[in-house]
UniProtKB/TrEMBL annotation:
Gene3D superfamilies: FAD/NAD(P)-binding domain. Residues 313-338 are annotated as: Disordered. Keywords: Cell projection, Cilium, Flagellum. Pfam families: CFAP61_N. InterPro entries: Acyl_CoA_acyltransferase, CFAP61, CFAP61_N, FAD/NAD-bd_sf. The keyword Cell division does not apply. It comes from the Eukaryota. This is Cilia- and flagella-associated protein 61 isoform X2. Residues 61-311 form the Cilia- and flagella-associated protein 61 N-terminal domain.
Amino acid sequence: MVTEFGSVSNGEANTTDNIVCSFTQKRQKVSLWIKFCSLSEINLRKMRTVTSDRGEEETVTVRRSESADAQGIDSLISPSAQAVFGRVNVIHVLEKANLAVTLASEKDDILAHASFFDHPVGDLVDQARWEPFLQKHFSTENCTPLNTLFLHLFVAQPNFAAASAKEIMRAVFSAVTELEYICLVSPNISDLEAALGDVFEPMQRLTDPGPQCLALICHRQEHCPRLHIRPSRVEDHDDIMSIFEQQTKLLSVIDQPYFLAELIEAQNEETHTAVCQVDGATVGFISVTADVDLKQLRHNFELSEFNSLYKRQQTKRDASAPTEPREDEEETTQTQTSASQQLFVIDKNYEMRSGDFIPYIFKLFPDLDFCVITVPTLSPEFPLLQSFLRVPPRATSSLLSELYIFHRAGLRPVEVRPAVAADRPAVSDLVKGLRLNESLLQDLDCFYETRSGRDGVPLQAFVAQVDGRIVGVLIIRDEQDVEFIRAHYNIENFIYFSHHGYEEHAQIRHFVLRPSFHHFTRHLFKEVLRLAHTSCLYHRAYPSHHSQENSCVYHLDFVLDCAVPVRPRRQIIYPLEELGINAPSRRITEDQAPFALSLISRKLTLEPKVTVNARIVVVGASDAGLSFLEVLCFCPHLRFNNLTLISTHGFPGDYSHEDAGFLSTSHAYSSRDLAQLPLHSCVRVVSKKMVGVNRKSKHVLVSGGEKVPYDHLILCTGLQYQVPCPSGVDLSQPVTNSQLQPQSARRRYTGPLPSNLFTLNDLCDCMAARRWLCANFVELE
């Protein structure tokens, strides 16, 4: 995703790829290559120019604030800023802000800073109750937690204050697509700085005298208005082509010089084109059609959750008709419900506003429920796709594309609130058929009855609803093992632990959200953190064979898209008996079942990840292969969707620890180490043996005839011991190895293996050897 802000990333991806969009014109399919921003460009900080009050121009960067900025920000706090925002601990503000933005010069000098929260300044009102408070006293009926942020701090160099405030507001509205309002609500009544007075206006009061506070509001329309979209005309041809020419060598790829004009002229009820405009200038173009090849999509992608993109219709049967169903009856009672985006381009300065096209598309097709987009696997994910759900491909899929889908219902606003007893039937219907759904319902009942689980730990339950319908549920519990987590996992790579109270840490017990509303996942977590008065949410992923795995999480990918994976820390083995009273707390040294840990904090709720759809196939569960996958899975701001491990006997962590002691070639990954890595959640495992590689078609052939396609192939088979092959020499004749024929040394043994001969290449071989030794020696004693 291209954003206005640079993000710190532990991983790099610097390939520039193209997106292939296709459209049908006069029954001829033409492929159009559109170059989008490469993944490495996503972390670049956009340069802008601001002008001081004296007319001086300065080239600046708008980026996310870092802890290293704290000293510079603190030096800019003036008495007037302190009078409005109160006394401020800058590190604490940076740690707890949902979004913190810094304006820096080319020399990285800080010109301005602003911090935004999801609740008003100070203790004017409880952070979970600000919405009814504002609606009671001010004309803010349109302000909701989804579309509103609150300014908690703004500082700037005096000469650049006015320009910096406008630039920061423009950048924030551009980066947070659902944002409509920025409010400044503070219990500190003071004269506002001129720079803020230019961007904020007073809220209209409904009560007199009302609360004694400062109440101001800033509207998106003044700084980053939504795009104006209208049907395209042939007269738009030159303007649209100029956008293509800025981003791709379009004219050298397309053989038909007037293809765009013909596409616009060919519009009908099933095919539409549109342009978006800013101040009358065309900045984007889109083409959509209702002519979708659903058969191909159903064959290659898992669409069962979306009724295979069909809408079932109930038809009345004639009483005289035969009672047995006909073969074609299913086809006649289904209606296609999807439109496909064929062609899309937008000026890079407005690409964050790409989502403005989505409501317009559904207005063009009022009877359709889905919009689908297919893009090549090597293409970077562009901003429009941030609102779409990626549909996983089938294991047998041979397409070189990824499918993204958006449901019409996703246009409706979502409300997050604490669960009440009346929600129980709707939640039960929501989780029906899901794995471990009974565990979720039991915890929900415990919450209703005692507000705590069966172990006495406090619980909180929240639901997400759209138009009064429950579409999601999230149950959290107080984190009881904060010290254990701090000691065993590197959570301080992501948070300043001292700025989070123990009561602000919570654990995700259950999470369920309908796929059509997946793009609200971050908002759901942001709202739960606010309503629950917490700042950190942890998700524990236990191996599937562990008894501790009793959380109902659906879909897990939704959680992983928002959370950062936390590395385990290497532990000191303490001689507890020798240390006596000097030994560390039992909370730290106690033995717990291993788990992979993910973290969601307040400052991560508005920071999207960079999605990588390239198909990366690793052959061999050796130390090298597992280490390679570990590095990819622990990239905090990268999300790899297509990681595949091909291993003869599957994932090595699926075996018990006592069977793992035979493999002398590896001490890098114990069963506990593997359980603490997020590989199970992020990597697809193919438990078969590679028998061939087709480099031309770019697929791996495995035993059983299955083909595993790849974009990048990593061969990490490790050291493979082979069964020694008899040389066939006459034992009565003394022969040395040097006298053997070279061919005999390279031969492989293909005959039946002796029952007492073992080659230890993986944990499965170790288990077989252990069982044989136990059966033939240990148990006989």
